[in-house]
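Q: Focus on the shape:
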Amino acid sequence: MNSKTQQGMTTIGWIVVIAIFSSILLTGFKVMPFYLEYFQVQSVLESVAEDQSLDPKSKRQLWEAIAKRLRVNQSTSIKREHLKFERKDGVTTITVDYRVEKPYIAQMFIGAHFIYSVEINR
């Protein structure tokens, strides 16, 4: 074996690998809160749908129950205008449709668009 053959990566190679790994890690840390909040929103809507004490015909009562649960979970992205309530053939459908954007690097933003629906059959 020739002693002049290269074995392993050069310093520049290691810097490139570290830069790629760091950017993936940064992206994960920026995106993870979006999905954690989305899972909380799903949980809130499902708990409202299962709550037998709520009148599914009352949009106001449904919104108040959702807002209360969102405050407890400290979810700040969801506003009243992100929710849509529809009643048809004895089924109430609650749909949440919202976008989240956060600064990423310099002038770039990273974001997500979420839509989720639940039905109340009462």
Notes: DSSP finds two helices and three strands in the chain. Helices lie at 11-50, 59-72. Residues 34-121 form one domain. The chain has a mean pLDDT of 92.
